[in-house]
Design brief:
Number of strands: 22
Shape: globular
Mean pLDDT: 80
Radius of gyration: 32 Å
Number of domains: 4
CATH architecture of the largest domain: 3-Layer(aba) Sandwich
Strand content: 15-25%
CATH superfamily of the largest domain: CRAL-TRIO lipid binding domain
CATH topology of the largest domain: Phosphatidylinositol Transfer Protein Sec14p
Number of helices: 19
Length: 717
């Protein structure tokens, strides 16, 4: 089975009116010296509307593909023919181009769609977009070769597209053509004009750009232009990336890399309503997986769930590191390196890792490292603005002076490995360079312990200097300006990083204290996780006293597909018996699974459905609310979503069977949070299940305690 390759371009903006761009575009036919492979084109079909507003033209284009001689011989062709259909609408100022291959159409299917449209915020600018798909069914056993050739040709043509338009614009300008009048409706005869709306007579367009352009506006466009300033430009519904923005803020990407970013971003907008990471962060996950969109999507989704679970988005604003960390953690931000990357200095050799782990536990240490990484992301964004070019990673300088056997204390190394693992998974491609200075004799031992946990891509960025080598050629000065080399490395710059030193034993805590605290920190999250099995949904009871309350929910489907329901019952369900779980009771401690609806209850008699079921796919984030109409008991239910059998035959389709086999052991996982709010306090949208913005994560700090007491009271009941 061949892979279907897809391409979606960013929006390319030409700062010229649509009509002028069209004049330039038309010049590339019948042949174009800038595209040597475009040998010829013949018009096969042409149609114009009476008022000349619509012009459809179909051409058969002859291409001389740059392919190995042998392949052409095997395929038995010298040229490849494409059919291109251009539909120009002068009234709406749009050109739509559809192209497909005629040669080998039973073996290879190529479809391309391009459009030229008016820029939504400036009617004198033109936007260009293109998308394409390539599906190679079979090609004499040379499928992958053909795919490579096709992709190579295609991407080089994408790059040329812009040059070609600019080349012809320049040519027009040299001929003195810098303005092409807009289309205007033909002047109608008397009898007709009485029936149509009374309108000022349209004078033929004269070459006065300002008035002429305003003259030919349709009512719709006038409405649009007047309403657009009030709307924020950033939040346009089809929030798209344009090519200039990518170059300025994200870097030089190849057309296929741009396409991956745009497609992954689109998928996130559709599934993770309203809460999607910044473009540069999405790009880091793509880079970490060599732009394999499926692999990148998988690690990105895991990371988004992790961020949500541990409230990482709020860590910089809400978490204050304990004093011990502020005094004894020998690391801090220090200006930037020669490439403009933020520079983080860590005096690991001066740091008492054992003391810090004993006084704080792994959790607080991990949390501190996370806050450093979050700060790093923020600084990259800031430096991108300051230096006028994309900066997406930071440089880390680690000074090992003073490193000794104490640093090889096992729990300390274990903590370090776990921290590295979490950082690797959630902050990929953020380390631009790691400079390790003054590495002592024990260093190779530590390195062998740690290096297997470090991603290959990251490992390439390590530079290790023993003793004072960093002062010599190829040393620190190649990467960091002389003015900011820290004092402790013999530089002139005062470095504010704490000196570290031994943590006093009086601050050590017992294993029990740390254990209790550790667990508390790790699960200090307003979300609860639940497992859902085939035939064993997870149900949560909410008792409503005041009829007009609002039940709100926010959940992530971590694994599998589920159906979400909400029911109402006048009578209280029996408290769940833990042992009724039977086989499922061996699941992990995090996977609670509770059924409340009695097997003998009947829908419609004992309880009723108050919202239509919602099917939620793996990886989705769902937020919503329900305004209660009656007091009583409400049950939220997450149920296993089984594949529907094919309606016609009632036999499961092959795809469905395969899909169901992939859901390992028929277990789904959900992470959820619910809260009841009095309707007068509820500021969300009242559109029930449709509501998609999570207002409650902001309230989380205030509600943690109440939601926990609330759930415990339910269980005790």
């Amino acid at each position: 089975a061949a892979m279907v390759q897809k391409y979606q371009s960013p929006v390319r903006v030409y700062k010229h009116p649509f009509e002028l761009i069209m004049a330039a575009y038309e010049r590339r036919f019948p042949t174009c010296p800038l595209i040597p492979m475009f040998v010829a084109s013949d018009t096969v079909n042409e149609h114009k509307s009476e008022d000349e507003a619509i012009h459809v033209i179909e051409r058969r284009c002859k291409l001389d593909i740059d392919a190995p001689r042998l392949l052409k011989k095997i395929a038995g062709v010298d040229y490849v023919y494409f059919v291109q259909k251009n539909s120009l609408n002068r009234r709406d100022r749009t050109l739509h181009i559809e192209a497909y291959n005629e040669t080998f159409s039973n073996r290879v299917i190529i479809n391309e769609h391009c459009s030229y449209t008016v820029h939504p915020d400036n009617e004198d600018w033109t936007c260009f977009e293109q998308s394409a798909s390539l599906d190679i069914k079979s090609f004499f056993g040379f499928e992958s070769t053909v795919e490579k050739i096709a992709m190579k040709q295609y991407t080089s043509n994408i790059k040329k597209g812009k040059e070609i338009i600019e080349y012809y614009l320049k040519q027009l300008e040299e001929e003195g053509i810098t303005f092409v009048p807009r289309w205007t409706p033909p002047v109608a005869c008397k009898s007709e004009s009485t029936t149509s709306h009374p309108r000022r007579p349209v004078s033929p367009a004269i070459n006065i750009p300002e008035s002429a352009t305003k003259e030919g506006l349709s009512n719709k466009e006038i409405l649009n232009t007047s309403s657009s300033p009030s709307e924020p430009t950033a939040g346009t519904p089809d929030d798209k990336l344009d090519a200039d923005y990518i170059k300025r803020y994200l870097g030089d990407l190849t057309p296929m890399q741009e396409s991956c970013l745009i497609r992954l971003r689109q998928w996130l907008q559709e599934t993770h309503k309203g809460k999607i990471p910044k473009d540069e962060h999405i790009l880091r996950f793509l880079r970490a997986r060599d732009f394999n969109i499926d692999k990148a999507r998988e690690i990105l989704c895991q990371s988004l769930t992790w961020r949500k679970q541990h409230q990482v988005d709020y860590i910089l604003d809400t978490w204050n590191p304990p004093q011990v960390l502020q005094d004894y953690y020998a690391g801090g931000w220090h200006h930037h390196d020669k490439d403009g990357r933020p520079l983080y200095v860590l005096r690991l050799g001066q740091m008492d890792t054992k003391g810090l782990v004993r006084a704080l536990g792994e959790e607080a240490l991990l949390r501190y490292v996370l806050s450093i990484n979050e700060e790093g992301l923020r600084r990259c964004e800031e430096n991108t603005k300051v230096f006028g070019r994309p900066i997406s990673s930071w440089t880390c300088l680690v000074d090992l002076e003073g490193l000794n056997m104490r640093h090889l204390w096992r729990p300390g190394v274990k903590a370090l490995l776990r921290i590295i693992e979490v950082v690797e998974a959630n902050y990929p491609e953020t380390l631009g360079r790691l400079l390790i200075l003054r590495a002592p004799r024990v260093f190779p031992v530590l390195w062998t312990l740690v290096s297997p946990f470090i991603d290959d891509n990251t490992r390439k960025k390590f530079l290790i200097y023993a003793g004072n080598d960093y002062q010599g050629p190829g040393g620190l000065l190649d990467y960091i300006d002389k003015e900011i080399i820290p004092d402790f490395l013999g530089g002139e710059c005062m470095c504010e990083v704490p000196e570290g030193g031994l943590v006093p034993k009086s601050l050590y805590r017992t294993a029990e204290e740390l254990e209790n605290e550790d667990i508390k920190l790790w699960t200090e999250t307003i979300y609860q996780s639940a497992s859902v099995f085939k035939g064993a949904p997870h149900e949560v009871l909410i008792q409503i006293v005041d009829a007009s309350s609002v039940i709100t929910w926010d959940f992530d489907v971590c694994k599998g597909d589920i159906v979400f329901n909400i029911f109402h019952s006048k009578r209280a369900p029996q408290p769940p018996k833990k042992d009724s779980l039977g086989a499922h009771s061996i699941t992990s401690p995090g996977g609670n699974n509770i059924q409340l609806i009695d097997k003998v209850w009947q829908l419609g008699r004992d309880y009723s459905m108050v919202e239509s079921p919602l099917i939620c796919k793996e990886g989705e984030s769902v937020q919503g609310s329900h305004v209660t109409r009656w007091p009583g008991f409400y049950i939220l239910q997450w149920k296993f979503h089984s594949m529907p059998a094919c309606a016609a035959t009632n036999l499961p389709r092959v795809d469905d069977v395969l899909a169901s086999l992939q859901v390992s052991s028929h277990k789904c996982k959900v992470m959820y949070y619910t809260e009841v709010i009095g309707s007068e306090d509820f500021r969300g949208s009242m559109t029930s299940l449709e509501s998609s913005h999570s207002g409650f994560s902001q309230l989380s700090a205030a509600t943690t305690s109440s939601s926990q007491s609330h759930s415990s009271s339910m269980i005790s009941r």
